[in-house]
Model the fold of this input.
Amino acid sequence: MSTFQIILIVLSWILILGAFLPSFRITHWSVRNFDFIRVQLIPFKVLILAVSLFVMELDSSLALVTQALLCLALLYQIKIILPYLSFFGQKNWPQKQDKTISVISVNVLQENDEYNRLIKLIDEFQPDILLTLETNLKWEKALEAIEKYYPKMKKIPLENRYGMHFYTKLKVKEIQQHFLISEEFPSIEARLEDKEGNNFIFWGIHPPPPSPTEEETSKKKDAELMKVATRVAQYELPTLVIGDFNNVAWSRSSKVFAKVSHLKDTRIGYGLCSTFPVHYRLLRFPLDLLFYSEGIEINKLQRMRDIGSDHFPLFSQFTVISGEHKNPTSISEEDKQEAEETIKDGIEEVKEEKTS
Done:
């Protein structure tokens, strides 16, 4: 077997493992990061398959098994991504402009000092709700320019890239800040009232990503998502959860989050609406997510223009169509157990870091 054939087989097995392993409860970043680039790996798999058909030895059992498994991995990858592609059952968004609530969620990139680009965007669109992520004291000071639009706000300036600021024009019943897993990572929960008098709950979240430079595993991120999900599952009000999930919609943890919380993913049947990274078009994937409950109707989802961050802002419009929401189904014991174990694992990892 030639060197080129060996390289093809090694690449094929990396792609095979990268397709299947993220679907299991493996939390290490080296596995979980394959979830983020599932779309990009589809053409790469096709290329490797096409080349291997011409250069592989037909009498090699290893080559034949590798080609068969790579083909299976390609089909599996397509099956996962297909519901999120815009040509597959694209939604026709309802248009109820008089009752819609507009939201901008944006990870500003803490070290980004082009404050005016975001301020101009807010001046132009003046959303009813603004959620900013990675905002520190410098960003807080700069964003005083837009406070004239927002009588209610919640500010959590941090210098660890997990600061969070919430601004709204809507009537506020209650705003709480949470540190669900660690004192490093805040989230915001707000009970709001729309113009029609309907109450709903808004969550803004930003859990940490699994990566070689931040968290070795996804345990903290997954635990925070499950914490939010279990709380949302108890609500009787329509609920919307938005933010930089540091997760893709099709990942195992996102799907369990949706099941446990009884929320729906806006992107299913709509399209990828990829928001990260800004400067590498071919590598983009949807990192800023939006999930919503019964009683809420999504009217629009749109990626906005570059503001100097590594994320594009995410613009959405929704309508509260009912002031009450009863969870339609109960979760399976399997999903409930996975959520409980995930929360336990995340809390244990935080404790271990404190004692080490």
